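Predict structure. Chain length: 84.
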Amino acid sequence: MNENTHLLMSEIELAHLGNGEVAYIKVLSTDEAEKMFPTVEGLPQGSHLYALHGADGTPIALTDTHQAALGHAMDGELEIASVH
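Prediction complete.
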């Protein structure tokens, strides 16, 4: 394999990553959070919120602090992956 070759993971492989044990935290604007969590009402406008997602992108929790999102992950015994 040369240095210009990249290994790609299919969406299905990514969805199964960590077998339900891996999650990531994403910072969302209020507008993004309202779209992702349509049943949540009364979100503070102009704030940054923290969403915990499974490796397959499934939203798990929405919080107002990064620490609370980490707490949800720990409660669910999830390993947090760094996503860039």
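Summary: Residues 66-75 form the longest helix (10 residues).
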